[in-house]
Amino acid sequence: MNQIWGSMEQYNTVVWHWPIAVYLFLAGLSAGAIISAIVVKWMKGNDVSPWDGIIKAGAILAPVTIGAGLCLLIFDLTRPLMFWKLLIHYNFGSVMTIGVLALFAYMPVSILFLLGVFKKELAVDGPFKFLAPIADLALNYGKALEAITLVLAVGVGAYTGFLLSAMNSYPLLNTPVLPALFLASGVSAGISANLVVGLLFFTHSTKDANVSYLHGLDVKVIFAELFFIFILFVGMMYQGGATAHAGAAALGTGGLSTLLWVGVIGLGLLLPIGLNFALPHGVKHSHAFVIFNALIVLAGVLALRYYMLYAGQTFVG
Amino acid sequence: MAKKYAMVHDNNLCIGCQACNVACRSENKIPDSVYRLQVWVKQEEYPNGSLGYEYHRQSCVHCENTPCVSVCPTKASHVNEDGIVLVDNDLCVGCLYCVAACPYQARYVHPVTKAPDKCTFCHESRLSRGEEPACVTVCPTEALVFGDLLDPKSKINKVLSERVTYRQKERLGTKPKMYIVPNHKGGINS
Lengths: 317, 190
Hints:
Radius of gyration of chain A: 21 Å
Order of helices and strands of chain B: EHEEHEEHEEHEHE
CATH topology of the domain at 5-64 and 117-181 in chain B: Alpha-Beta Plaits
Number of strands of chain B: 9
Helix content of chain A: over 70%
Number of strands of chain A: 0
Strand content of chain B: 15-25%
Oligomer: heterodimer
CATH architecture of the domain at 5-64 and 117-181 in chain B: 2-Layer Sandwich
Shape of chain B: globular
């Protein structure tokens, strides 16, 4: 405190910290995992039990990651014991309320999906026999429930972007492309997490054709992400003034810009694309490579969430 | 009768003495580490080489189109019938969305309640007794003028009719009810 007006500590523009970045990552991953599991389940030959390992992976990952993310979110509140007020008081103009309502619907349908896929393990042979009728319900109305789940998952994936883009106090976040970027990177993270869990824990039930399909889809989504990041910064430059200044600072200042270039773009986006084109077919389709590739994509997506949250709040023009 | 309270900060009358800052702390019992109000003093050098000072009142500007209220998921952040932006601690979960969304950095987390806190125009204390906010009362140069925009005879409407004013970050469409009379020398950094 060396100004006559007092300490300026409270004027730090970084309000939300790493737990929010991890939540944004987990919410995107959850949505992407169930979206890619449903896409695979709807493909010919996959829509009957025994389920493909990818579908099993998505069924587990979706509720577990969103649950973990929400716990993190609640403990990050400054008044965590008051969190229940979020569930009964609504402001329909707030993206956070829309998110709460989307999650209200998303949580149960993702658990229904889990019950349907793991009916045998949980409700027939497992300890949750009383849930058998619900598992049957999930299986009998599978297509309809999955269609609803798909829409809600897109909502959850995109809302994390709208949550940040709604704030005009931060030029890097206040951009219309952010929800699209977050949805795309969430899908990429979900695909990658499904591949890792499917290949490691459900090795025998994961079909190579599905692995190849998802891996190929991931590469396409990565191209979309690169384009969205390009649009984001070009858009900021075209707006001029403080926004252009903030954009230039975010691209070239300090550790955060290193994280963007090395972590997000280099490791998370360019390396997977490069390896995919450079490596011989045999290596590319080995399980070890697919798992390695998925892990670097996941690291890149986490880096993107961390970068966007911190750079967004740091470079305010 | 609903009112529309607003304030004028005149840069030519302000001397950066921080009497407002101190009065606010004492009236509203603000904990040591945080501030509802500061006046930032910045030295300026004009094109002819002469020196002067710019004064920035750092506090809530009581927007009409309030980003903090729009984003609040529980309506804890709200505007009362007199146009004053307030926080209802009973509804606040502490998500800090309002703190992040405020383009004026007017909010801080109260160290005791852990809910965001901010300038209230002394609504809960002095205003309810028919007195002006503490900062306005103590200002030794009458750089602060407070009043009801809906009353054509109010002192603030007289000042707004006689002096040039602008509002910070008007491009964001927030319509602040904090009017600044710019320094008569130099440029305006809105």
